[in-house]
Amino acid sequence: MNILxxxxxxxxxxxxxxxxxxxxxxxxxxxxLSFEAFLIFQKWxxxxxxxxxxxxxxxxxxxxxxxxxxxxxxxxxxxxxxPPNVCKAPFSSFIxxxxxxxxxxxxxxxxxxxxxxxxxxxxxxxxxxxxxxIPPKTHHQESIKEAEMVLFPVMDDLxxxxxLSPRDIDILIVNCSGFCPSPSLSSIIINKYSxxxxxxSFNLSGMGCSAGAIxxxxxxxxxxxxxxxxxxxxxxxxxxxxxxxxxxxxxLLLNCVxxxxxxxxxxxxxxEARNTSKYKLLHSLxxxxxxxxxxxxxxxxxxxxxxxxxxxxxKDLLQAVGETLRSxxxxxxxxxLPFSAKLWHVVSIIRKKFIDKxxxxxxxxxxxxxQHFCLPTSGIALIREVAKALKLNARDVEAAxxxxxRFGNQSxxxxxxELAYMEGKERVKKGDKVWLLGLGTGLKCCSLVWECLQPMAxxxxxxxxxxxxxxxxxxxxxxxx
Length: 481
Hints:
The protein is of the alpha/beta class.
């Protein structure tokens, strides 16, 4: 019923907006023609005819020129961080170190070993240097070093790719969910690159794995009111500050699957950027279910019984994700799907509610309008849940599964590794639509739909997949995929 109400509400808003615009224009035309007929009938001076035409021209100019939509937002390019080999964390080393640390008992170590072997991760994922120490270094200064390690290289690479100076950047957005120092991460970047004094800087924290998509959504909204501007969005997660050293199994999951990663994305609304940008942003949608206690508490950072901080993942997390996703894709579908698909969906809901309760609700396929999907890499089970909801096949989720396998769960930056994978395989063609779907604690959901503007060539040579793309896809069935 909630899905039906959300769909009907959004559709009614769109229809009402269109109807009001049409009625306003029709009314003006009717009044103008009536007045013109009156002038002709009364044989008034031609000056009044000119005055009427001038009013009509000014109305049209105001409606379609001055009140036009803001300029489109383009994604010029993006960069992903490739950690050094010294940071690789094979399962054997991870378990050996966990056994040597001292504060994990044998049951906790065995549990983490079991999670690793069924996680879908490979032996080549990365942990920051602080977590390779025995015991792990989780104090503030180590987290600052990790932030510099993951953010500076992608910033350098992006500026090099786009041939921009740091002083060409008008807007800076940095998102990191678990680490929020003072001065902020955005201030660290501004200081490092001597950026302008009037730069608009923002720092997002506590937004979970959806923060990367939310950062893009924030950037495109700021660009609506700042013409001819460049915006950089930096997405990462600092792992040293989120390491859990207790014994509660739900909190140990984060240690096993979260891995190093970061991405830098350049957005712009400059007209000339269309000829050089990779993508244009077509749709952006944010929804959340923080008002619902079950969704709100499904993934929660809290202290355990011994006062040790960690993130708890509840057993009903997937169910809460499913509910959040269904309501979200219903609203998004009302924006991007063809009218016939939306109509059949609504009809099937009404039929199930009032006529045949045993009937199935028709779920339209997004594959009719979307060619590529960048999904959350929070785990195999979540990827399966999303794939089921969207009716995706193995090829559609390949990028998500291979990113999880090669790099692990990189939180808010994982989608860009997926997009780099698809670009490297030369699957993204000019005119294709790419859906980037973010899910984060709260629960919250954010979707970005992009249109590819340029043919992709030789992208594999300048991506984090450059040394291993030829080995993918791999068969991960033995790990539960």
